[in-house]
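Long-time lurker, first post. I've been practising inverse folding by hand and with some scripts of my own, and I keep getting stuck on stretches where the structure tokens seem ambiguous. Below is the full token string for one chain I'm working on. Before anyone asks, I'm not after the true native sequence, just a reasonable design that respects the backbone. If someone could post their per-position residues I'd love to compare against what I wrote down in my notebook.
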């Protein structure tokens, strides 16, 4: 709909320009897209005796579905869900959007930590791309994966939680605000200390790797035991922080 006036500048991707396969794909993008998007499905349909059915389902419907899933990243991912890491942007984290976009729905995290290869930073979060990249790293096909330190992720969460809590307390007395800030500072320090310990152990375990020697395996097992204990400590500290949420009503009756 809008024609690009300036010529395309590929000076910042010399490694991609050096790849002859990518150059071929770029030069012949439209015929390749038509061939693979519609030509291949209808050819398979002819072989199966259902050319129009294959064209409609594997060609047209698939194209519409994939395009909508792709564009959800800049529409639904900015309207549906929570903002746990940054309140300065409209990007949001939502498991629904993640399911529709193959993991791209944890968009608030991506905006705050854009260099991290993960979108769903926690294990239970649906992010197939993260798992694929991690598998590639395990077999030596990917390396140097960038991971945001655990303590920085937690600091971002605490920053957002603090803003929300202070917002809720704006209508309370100065004494209540002072009480809240004192509680917040104490719990926040405990959470950050636990997060720093967990993050350090995670990085150490990540650098150590599995290995095959008995000594290396024992070292990894010790680290994992320490990490489990540190994570328990971290979860306890986080639960204390979350308990601060209903405190405004309680503290307002105390002061």
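-- Answer (accepted) --
I ran through it position by position. Result:
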């Amino acid at each position: 709909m809008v024609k690009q006036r300036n010529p395309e500048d590929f000076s910042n991707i010399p490694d991609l320009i050096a790849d002859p396969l990518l150059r071929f794909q770029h030069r012949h993008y439209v015929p390749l897209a038509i061939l693979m998007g519609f030509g291949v499905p209808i050819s398979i349909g002819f072989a199966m005796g259902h050319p129009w059915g294959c064209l409609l389902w594997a060609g047209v419907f698939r194209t519409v579905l994939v395009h909508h899933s792709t564009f959800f990243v800049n529409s639904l991912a900015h309207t549906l869900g929570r903002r746990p890491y940054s309140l300065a942007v409209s990007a949001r984290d939502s498991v629904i959007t993640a399911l529709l976009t193959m993991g791209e729905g944890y968009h608030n995290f991506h905006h705050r930590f854009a260099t991290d290869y993960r979108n769903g930073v926690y294990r239970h979060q649906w992010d197939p791309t993260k798992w694929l990249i991690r598998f590639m790293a395990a077999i030596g096909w990917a390396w140097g994966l960038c991971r945001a330190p655990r303590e920085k992720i937690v600091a971002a969460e605490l920053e957002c939680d603090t803003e929300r809590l202070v917002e809720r307390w704006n209508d309370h007395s100065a004494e209540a605000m002072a009480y809240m800030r004192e509680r917040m500072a104490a719990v926040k320090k405990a959470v950050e200390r636990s997060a720093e310990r967990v993050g350090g152990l995670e990085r150490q375990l990540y650098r150590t790797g599995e290995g095959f020697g008995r000594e290396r395996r024992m070292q990894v097992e010790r680290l994992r035991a320490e990490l489990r204990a540190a994570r328990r400590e971290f979860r306890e500290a986080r639960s204390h922080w979350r308990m601060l949420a209903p405190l405004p009503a309680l503290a307002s009756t105390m002061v």
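A couple of notes from the structure itself: The chain has a mean pLDDT of 80. The radius of gyration is 25 Å. Happy to go over any region you disagree with.
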